[in-house]
Amino acid sequence: MSLTRDDVLDIARLARLAITPAEMPGLSDSLPKILTFVEQLSAAQTADVEPMAHPLDGQSQRLRSDTVSETDAHERYQQNAARVEASLYLVPKVIE
Questions:
Q1: Cα separation of 39 and 84, whole Å?
Q2: How far is CA 57 from CA 45, 54, 62, 65, 71, in A?
Q3: 68, CA 20 to 30 Å: which among 6, 14, 90, 93?
Q4: What phi, psi does 77 have (nearest 5°)?
Q5: How far is residue 81's CA from residue 39's CA, in Å, rounded to a whole number?
Q6: Residue 56 half-sphere exposure, CB side, CA atoms within 13 Å?
């Protein structure tokens, strides 16, 4: 699949990407490769594949121990705040 310069610019516009002229040759080469790969993925037979709710279905995941690793320092952090009340940061109203 080959893409023209206009095709690359249209894709960039749809993706809300700002492309510089220096980036254009690299994108013109890599985007067709990406689209070809997506076409190959679309050709995969998935009719008999059962959807999964979780990739480790029926297995247990190793978890770290639930221990406290840091002390509560919110009072020290709030000393730098302009305004604090009831352990909450007070900020100016932005939306009316």
A1: 55
A2: 22, 5, 14, 22, 36
A3: 90
A4: -65, -35
A5: 53
A6: 4
- Evaluate whether the domain defined by 5-42 bears CATH number 1.10.10: no
- For the whole prediction, is pTM greater than 0.70? no
Q: How far is C-alpha 84 from the chain's CA centre? A: 33
- Dihedral angle computed from the Cα positions of residues 44, 45, 49 and 55, in that order, rounded to the nearest 10 degrees: -10
Of the candidates 59, 7, 49, the one whose C-alpha atom is nearest the C-alpha of residue 29 is 7
Q: What is the pLDDT of residues 54-70, one digit of tens each?
A: 777 778 778 888 898 88
Token duo for residue 26 = 């690299």
